[in-house]
Write a structure and sequence with these properties.
CATH superfamily of the largest domain: PurM-like C-terminal domain
CATH architecture of the largest domain: Alpha-Beta Complex
Number of strands: 14
Number of helices: 9
Order of helices and strands: HEEEEHEHEEHEHHEHEHEHEEE
Number of domains: 2
Largest sheet: 7 strands, mixed
Radius of gyration: 20 Å
Helix content: 25-40%
Strand content: 15-25%
Strand order of the largest sheet: 9-11-8-12-10-13-14
Structural class: alpha+beta
CATH class of the largest domain: Alpha Beta
Length: 350
């Protein structure tokens, strides 16, 4: 980290620069055992109760986009982070930063959208805050911060059932993604560029997928929602946390044709594109069929696919010794390294 430098949009990309900033500044000053795990939701014990707590800020532009709006996004983004810890979301706080000039009717419609999704998620909005600031745009703007609180099942705690963890990948695990990649990123980019297409954001709650896996009795070792930085960045984070490597199989990750076409025109890679309603998870290989059947039975998981596997610690499939990394096995039998996102990506995607 160059302390003589300045903050750039790359520091908000969710990729390498974001992680560098987190480690060099925030983790240095705020260090403690809970924060050191750097998980999307912190797991804490308060008396006999175990809680998951996650906070997030939403600054997406435009405020309303194909398939959603900033209010829907604020709930889905935070609730999904709590879900990834294995907890059941219960409560939400909302802080609003309003720029002068914002239409009150627009604010009202966004709040209605937020409240509707919160009800669908089963969370109560229990407190909040509002600030008004001067804006650069005469029509104003809006930013939302939400904090989600989830609780763990007491019976699971009593039985010492392990919660999914970013460090929970096991050698030999199958990796499954819950649906097609890149929809949110492509929808936001299309809206900003005035490109007319059929692409809709995938902004949605991941609750049905979690419930389906639980009902099928599938034990999930690790899971993460695939947001900023895309699948490539998330998998690199999981590999590093677990001390293993990952091998993906080319062509297995689902991508909708309009998104693939947009990527071809603009030179984008769906593996690095943000999503707001997809997750990736690891399971024992013998559970792969049951997990796929369970997820595909849900409306949002119809396109779920097995995309790769977890390798032995520090070993690739050809037995080459390596550091924890992510590789893509190509159709012709070669391998290509898949790094975390470097650089800017698409700013203000969430």
């Amino acid at each position: 980290m160059d302390f003589d430098g300045i903050i750039t949009l790359a520091h908000g990309s969710g990729g390498f620069d974001s992680a560098d900033l987190m480690q060099a500044v925030f983790a240095k000053h705020f260090r403690n055992d809970i924060l050191a795990r750097l998980e999307d939701a912190a797991v804490v014990n308060i008396g006999a109760q175990r809680l998951a707590i996650s906070t997030d800020s939403f600054v997406v532009e435009p405020l309303i986009f194909p398939g959603g709006d900033i209010g829907r996004l604020a709930v889905c983004g935070t609730v999904n982070d709590v879900l990834m810890s294995g907890a059941a979301p219960k409560y939400l706080t909302c802080g609003f930063i309003l720029e002068a000039g914002l239409s009150i009717s627009l604010l009202d419609s966004i709040c209605a959208s937020l409240a509707e999704v919160a009800m669908d998620a089963g969370v109560a909005i229990i407190c909040g805050d509002t600030k008004v600031i001067e804006g650069k745009n005469p029509s104003g703007g809006l930013m939302i911060n939400t904090t989600g609180i989830g609780v763990f099942d007491a019976e699971d705690d009593a039985a010492s059932v392990a919660s999914p963890s970013p460090a929970g990948l096991h050698a030999g695990d199958s990796l499954i993604v819950s649906g097609a990649l890149g929809d949110h990123h492509a929808a936001i980019l299309s809206a900003r560029m005035g490109i007319e297409n059929e692409i809709q954001s995938d902004c949605t709650l991941l609750t049905p997928v979690i419930e389906a896996l639980a009902a099928a009795g599938v034990h999930v070792h690790a899971m993460r929602d695939v947001t900023r930085g895309g699948l490539a960045t998330v998998l690199n984070e999981l590999a590093a946390a677990s001390g293993v490597s990952i091998e993906l199989t080319e062509g297995t990750a689902p991508i909708h044709p309009p998104v693939k076409a947009l990527c071809g025109i603009l030179g984008l890679d769906p593996l690095y594109m943000g999503n707001e309603g997809k997750m990736v998870f690891s399971i024992a290989p013998e559970d792969e069929s049951a997990a796929l059947a369970a997820v595909r039975a849900t409306e949002i998981g119809r396109e779920a696919a097995a995309i790769g596997r977890v390798l032995s610690r520090n070993r690739r499939s050809d037995e080459t010794l390596i550091e924890p990394q992510v590789f893509l096995r190509t159709a012709i039998g070669g391998t290509r390294r898949i790094d975390a996102l470097y650089g800017e990506g698409l700013p203000r995607i969430c």
